[in-house]
Amino acid sequence: MFAMQIKIKYRRSVLVLVTIVSTVFLLARCVSNQGEDKNGGPKVDEAITFASYTTSEKCMSCHKEIYESHGKTAHYLTGQPAGEETIRGSFQKGKNEYYYTPEILLSMQKRDSGLFQVAYFKGEEKKAMRFDMVIGSGVMGQSFLTWRQDQLYQLPITYFTAADQWSNSPGFPNDKVLIDRPATSRCLECHVTYAERISGPALEPTGFARNKIIYGVDCQKCHGPAAKHVEYQTQHPQDTNAKYIVNPAKLSTQQQLDICTLCHGGNIQKTKPSFGFTAGKNLSDFFSIESHNNVVLNSSEIDVHGNQVGLLKASKCFKLSQAMTCSTCHNSHENERGKTEVFSQRCISCHNMADKKLQTPTHIQVNAIETNCIDCHMPVQPSKSIAVFLQGEETPKTSQLRSHFIGIYQEEIKKFINKNK
Ligand code: HEC
Ligand code: HEC
Ligand code: HEC
Ligand code: HEC
Ligand code: HEC
Ligand code: HEC
Ligand code: HEC
């Protein structure tokens, strides 16, 4: 069989040792423990198949601007077929190796039949694993999946952006090469728009059709399957009313939040088969999401990683305003990373800084008050669940994420004032 592990004695590697313990993997594991319904498995929504979807290139002719800007977003780039253009790590000699120990080597290689992660033990080739799918835009890093028949497995080596180096994959051991970890369907559900199952109706499908995947977080993840919309509008160019497509702006606040909660809601548990939920439906019909609906969250217990919904819901801005959604601050069609001033303008759309109440001692003191609300009120915080060991360092480096618990952070405020004096 393909299952094989190259066991080795542990020795501190001279190269970068990166261990990322990610909630994502905890999630993935929780989901994979779920079984099938006793009556022969839960029902699959037969109405939605690969044929219900189209490609986003099809949107270009009528929604050119959105199509072009969306192509630059982390969403669009978060799931892609593997290739030299999509993999960010280097295949050049000297930069393409990851030593687990002096005897165990993983080397990234370009061969005639594709790109591979090749495991060696004492110089002898043991296993060549093809890069088939790239997961992650590379803001933080990229992981890779490989096909074996109709199943996807995660490759042992990941590209880690902050160090611009290959590292061992999150949650993988760094003393042996693990080559038989299946990628769960949740992994695909959060990083691709649709993948057609070819295995039975169990909650955790094992088989997918290779050529029936819509990569990345595409238009149709937020607007629903669009084949029918494209067909109709193409055949009826005189009809300027949209048919057969979901505009989130016209949904209830809860349904708008549901779209983002599918992937930004932390550990939610599946109750129906994968890919059944589409924009405009109620997420609670497909997942148990009570923790988000009760809004009795204790923000200090929620990690900044992967649960922007939970943190936002615990904030006063959300609790005390009408109909706040993710779109209040995010334009889903644009890559707005780092545009602090743009985000601050969105705060000011609700908080009138001329208001007496906002003439607080700190606000008056700060000059550039209107261009950066977020470093004081939504500071970047270390994740409690992602820790990274770099070469020669005894303490792990934690991954940094923007907190969505909007509040008053005394420490960060002091730092901000000192920096901007
Ligand atoms: C042949 C032209 C055409 C194509 C191709 C097309 N659309 Fe549309 N779309 C329209 C028209 C016309 C409207 C209605 C006017 C408007 O809102 O721009 C519309 C509206 C929309 C709306 C807003 C709906 C609403 O109720 O407000 C969304 C969302 C949308 N399209 C998404 C897509 C996506 C995603 C694709 C590609 C998969 C796509 N469209 C491809 C013509 C097209
Ligand atoms: C199908 C899963 C999925 C859905 C649905 C989804 N996201 Fe995401 N989102 C992701 C993933 C995965 C990333 C990380 C992308 C990367 O860097 O690889 C991400 C990243 C982001 C980012 C950071 C972008 C950047 O430049 O780094 C923002 C902001 C965001 N999502 C907002 C939203 C909002 C708002 C919604 C709802 C309208 C939403 N997302 C719906 C999966 C999803
Ligand atoms: C519940 C949804 C979810 C699942 C399941 C999930 N991810 Fe993610 N992933 C995200 C989100 C959201 C981000 C963006 C970072 C954040 O907000 O924490 C992300 C970020 C990443 C990144 C970093 C991308 C970048 O450069 O910013 C990688 C790599 C990644 N995920 C790989 C995986 C792999 C591999 C699996 C499956 C084994 C997986 N993820 C499962 C939602 C998910
Ligand atoms: C991460 C989710 C997400 C993705 C991906 C996404 N959209 Fe949207 N889209 C939205 C949201 C949310 C709105 C409503 C914005 C608002 O509240 O005004 C919207 C609105 C629209 C509209 C209505 C007109 C407008 O500008 O508001 C069109 C048309 C549209 N999207 C087309 C597309 C196309 C085409 C793509 C892919 C190229 C795409 N969208 C990708 C979330 C998304
Ligand atoms: C949809 C409207 C809305 C938006 C957008 C908004 N807020 Fe708020 N915010 C509120 C409301 C309502 C309250 C509660 C009443 C108050 O304190 O003014 C609040 C409260 C706050 C508080 C007090 C928190 C506390 O725990 O005492 C801070 C700080 C704050 N907002 C900062 C921000 C920042 C920074 C942004 C932008 C990133 C922002 N808000 C965006 C509506 C909003
Ligand atoms: C009050 C404004 C506001 C709201 C509402 C909001 N965000 Fe954000 N979000 C921000 C800001 C500001 C950033 C940081 C942008 C940057 O630095 O580039 C951010 C960043 C992100 C990121 C990237 C995180 C990182 O550190 O890499 C994700 C993912 C995200 N938001 C998802 C969401 C989701 C999902 C929702 C809805 C539950 C949401 N946001 C609602 C203001 C907001
Ligand atoms: C230098 C850090 C800093 C910046 C920048 C900053 N704030 Fe504040 N903000 C504070 C502090 C500290 C408080 C608590 C009152 C005080 O000590 O002045 C506060 C209080 C608030 C409150 C709650 C007021 C109340 O008592 O109800 C809101 C709302 C708020 N800020 C919004 C904003 C917005 C919007 C921006 C950007 C335009 C912003 N802040 C920029 C530090 C900052």
Explain this structure to me?
The chain is of the alpha+beta class and about 425 residues long. The protein has a domain at about 1-45 and about 60-210. Helix content is about 25%, strand content about 20%. The strands form six sheets. Strands 2, 7, 8, 9, 10 and 11 form a six-stranded antiparallel beta sheet that branches. It has a four-stranded antiparallel beta sheet with strand order 3-4-5-6, with no helix packed on it. It is globular. The termini are far apart. One heme C binds near residues 408 and 413.
Provide the low-confidence segments as ranges: 1-44, 292-299, 390-394
Biggest β-sheet strands, sense, barrel: 6 strands, antiparallel
Q: Which ligands accompany this protein?
A: heme C
How would you sum up the global shape?
A: globular
The count of helical stretches stands at: 14
Distance between the termini: 64 Å
Radius of gyration: 23 Å
Structural class: alpha+beta
Give the total of beta strands.
18
Proportion of strand residues? 15-25%
Helix content: 10-25%
- The overall average pLDDT, rounded, is 83
